[in-house]
Each structure stands twice: as structure tokens, then as C-alpha cells.
């Protein structure tokens, strides 16, 4: 067993906050447990709730190197694990024309011709590492098989070179938008964390952290209005990233209240679909007419 990175749940929260990430107790607890148990952490949730940022902040908080495997449709072993540098191998074979096959083979299947991809790089890294497998649900099911193998015992076998075992286990964080269910087998190996839109109080703190110049009352209005928009069954609910962008916009405009005309003029920062824009404007107007906060 490796020495854990954190001694308590509180320490996780504090160090993440210092690294610019405000974690709820639930988030801090799951991170603490993943670290203690040496298990990968699977973080699932809608877009823009801080899944990727959690991995980045963890790396900053622990001084670890962040190695990122960005998943996409069609990603395969040669992009995720390793591949041989065929062009260079060919050149080497051509250059050593008089060499026998045995000799040439020993040469071209050596370290010098190996292109390590994120999974192999993370396993071989002797320094503290956070391995981020981002948007796992975008990869095909075959990729999950590979992840299971690698994350199961933290070793990789390259037939020509032998088995490479992790000298130091990376902290592994997988993210998913849940566009499809990940396999039971993969889930079983991970601790699971569902990240959702934060409670208003936490979101206000996030806004304060990112946009320190913004007036507190205005920050509160932004968060309240974003909360109302999230309750409207829009095609794409605004994420934390959009709340922060909106706050920045208001600061840049020097707005001092979030009145109807300001909202009208800046709603494009938060809502990215015409239909959402129309629906939100109508519902907000109705709310003003009825003199109540929507949502
Ligand atoms: N708890 C938090 N503390 C501070 N900042 C946060 C927090 N959560 C989210 N953010 C901010 O929100 C932004 C969006 O987060 P991030 O990119 O991690 O979202 P995501 O969940 O990975 O979304 P996607 O599914 O679209 O990739 C980050 O750049 C960060 O600035
Ligand atoms: Mg992300």
C-alpha cells in the first residue's frame, strides 16, 4: 500500500480550496476514500459541474503531475496505451541494411521506438500522478476492457518488452456525462461520485472565488436567476461555468443590478439555444408580471 495523499476529509476540502476548487463534504469525502482505498474515482454528472476541474485541482493540491487521456469515439490502444513508431523503425532498418534480422528486431523494438500514450506514461511515472480519463462514456466499450486491465493491477504488458508495473500508483479519476451506461465491471472497480449543480450557497462562493470584484448582492442575484433557469426544463441548463461567465460579464459591463434589460442583453452568455432563450425570456416576464421569483 502507498502512503495516502490526505490524512482527513477536512484536509481534502482545505487543500482543494487552496487550489481553487470548492468541494462539498460529499465530494471531499469520496476523494478521501478513493485515496485511502487506492481505487479509481468515477465522477458522473451533467456538463460543466466541475468534473474535469476536480482532477486538475487535485493535481494542483497535491503537487502531482496531471496526465490526461481524452476519450472520443474510436479511440484505441495505440492512442491510449502505446504504439510503435513505425516510420522511425523503418528508417532504422534501412540504415542498418547489413544487419541480420535478430539484431534489427532487438533494435527497433526497444524503448527508443516506443511512443508512450497517457495510460502507459501514467503507469511508468515515478513522480506523483493524477491520471484523468476524461469523458469515458464517449469511448467505445472495447476501451473499457483496456481500462479494466490497466486499472485492475496497474500494469501493462508490451509483448516485445515485457510487463511494466507501476512504481507508484497514480490517483485515477474517470469522468462521464452518462451519455451511455459504463459497464458493471468498470463501475465495480471504481468509487462513484455523482456531481450535480451545487446548492446556491456553494455556487455563490464559487462565483466569489472566480470573480472577486463582483458585488455580493449581484453575485447572489446571478446565482438565484441561474437556479431559476435550471428549473425551467431547458434544452441545455446553464452550468457553473456559465454562472461564472455571467458574473464576469456583469462585472465587465459595470452593471449594478440584474434588471430586465441587463438580463435581456446578456442572456446569451448563459443560454446557447434560441428556443431556450425564448422560453426563459417569456417565463421571466411572466414572473415579473406576477411579481414573484421564478422557479
Ligand atoms: N467546485 C468548484 N469550485 C471552483 N470552480 C468550479 C467548481 N466547479 C466548477 N467550477 C468551474 O466550472 C468550470 C467548468 O467545470 P469543468 O470543465 O470541470 O466541467 P465538467 O463537469 O468537466 O463539464 P463537461 O462535462 O462539459 O466536460 C471550471 O472551469 C471551473 O472554473
Ligand atoms: Mg469536462
Give a description of the structure:
It comes from Gandjariella thermophila. This is MoxR-like ATPase. One of its GO terms (molecular function) is ATP binding. Residues 37-201 form the AAA+ ATPase domain. The chain has helices at 9-18, 25-37, 51-62, 77-80, 86-95, 101-108, 118-124, 141-153, 184-189, 200-210, 216-230, 240-253, 260-266, 274-289, and strands spanning 41-44, 65-70, 82-84, 114-116, 129-134, 155-158, 162-165, 171-176, 191-194. The protein has 295 residues and is of the alpha/beta class. The chain has 3 domains: 9-81 and 117-194, P-loop containing nucleotide triphosphate hydrolases (Rossmann fold), CATH 3.40.50.300; 86-114, no CATH class; 200-289. The strands form 3 sheets. A 5-stranded parallel β-sheet has the order 2-5-8-1-9, sandwiched between helices. It is elongated. Residues 51-52, 134, 175 line the site of magnesium ion.
Structural class, please? Answer: alpha/beta
Q: Which CATH class of the largest domain?
A: Alpha Beta
Q: Strand-and-helix sequence, N→C?
A: HHEHEHEHHEHEHEEEHEHHHHH
Note the main sheet: 5 strands, parallel
Mind telling me the CATH superfamily name of the largest domain?
P-loop containing nucleotide triphosphate hydrolases
The parts where pLDDT drops under 50 for at least 5 residues are: none
Distance between the termini: 49 Å
Number of helices: 14
- Helical percentage: 40-55%
Tally of strands? 9
How are the strands ordered across the major sheet?
2-5-8-1-9
Question: How many domains, as an integer?
Answer: 3
GO molecular function: ATP binding; ATP hydrolysis activity
Pfam family, one: AAA_5
Protein name: MoxR-like ATPase
InterPro entries: AAA+_ATPase, ATPase_dyneun-rel_AAA, CbbQ/NirQ/NorQ/GpvN, P-loop_NTPase
Amino acid at each position: 500500500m502507498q502512503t495516502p495523499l490526505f490524512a482527513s476529509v477536512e484536509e481534502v476540502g482545505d487543500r482543494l480550496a487552496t487550489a481553487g476548487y470548492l468541494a462539498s463534504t460529499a465530494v471531499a469525502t469520496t476523494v478521501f476514500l478513493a485515496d485511502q482505498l487506492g481505487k479509481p474515482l468515477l465522477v458522473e454528472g451533467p456538463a460543466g459541474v466541475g468534473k474535469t476541474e476536480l482532477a486538475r485541482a487535485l493535481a494542483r493540491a497535491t503537487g502531482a503531475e496531471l496526465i490526461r487521456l481524452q476519450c472520443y469515439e474510436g479511440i484505441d490502444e495505440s492512442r491510449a496505451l502505446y504504439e510503435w513508431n513505425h516510420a522511425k523503425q523503418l528508417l532504422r532498418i534501412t540504415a542498418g541494411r547489413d544487419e541480420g534480422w535478430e539484431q534489427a528486431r532487438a533494435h527497433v523494438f526497444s524503448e527508443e521506438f516506443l511512443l508512450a500514450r497517457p495510460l502507459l506514461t501514467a503507469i511508468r511515472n515515478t513522480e506523483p500522478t493524477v491520471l484523468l480519463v476524461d469523458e469515458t462514456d464517449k469511448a467505445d466499450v472495447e476501451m473499457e476492457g483496456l481500462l479494466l486491465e490497466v486499472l485492475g493491477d496497474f500494469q501493462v504488458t508490451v509483448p516485445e518488452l515485457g510487463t511494466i508495473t507501476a512504481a507508484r500508483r497514480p490517483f485515477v479519476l474517470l469522468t462521464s456525462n452518462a451519455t451511455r451506461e459504463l459497464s458493471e465491471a468498470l463501475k465495480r472497480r471504481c468509487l462513484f461520485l455523482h456531481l450535480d449543480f451545487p446548492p446556491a450557497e456553494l455556487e455563490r462562493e464559487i462565483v466569489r472565488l472566480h470573480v472577486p470584484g463582483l458585488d455580493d448582492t449581484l453575485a447572489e442575484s446571478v446565482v438565484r436567476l441561474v437556479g431559476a433557469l435550471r428549473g425551467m426544463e431547458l434544452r441545455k441548463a446553464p452550468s457553473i461555468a456559465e454562472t461564472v461567465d455571467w458574473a464576469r460579464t456583469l462585472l465587465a459591463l459595470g452593471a449594478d443590478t440584474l434588471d430586465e434589460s441587463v438580463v435581456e442583453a446578456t442572456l446569451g452568455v448563459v443560454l446557447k439555444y434560441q428556443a431556450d432563450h425564448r422560453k426563459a425570456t417569456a417565463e421571466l416576464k411572466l414572473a415579473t408580471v406576477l411579481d414573484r421569483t421564478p422557479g
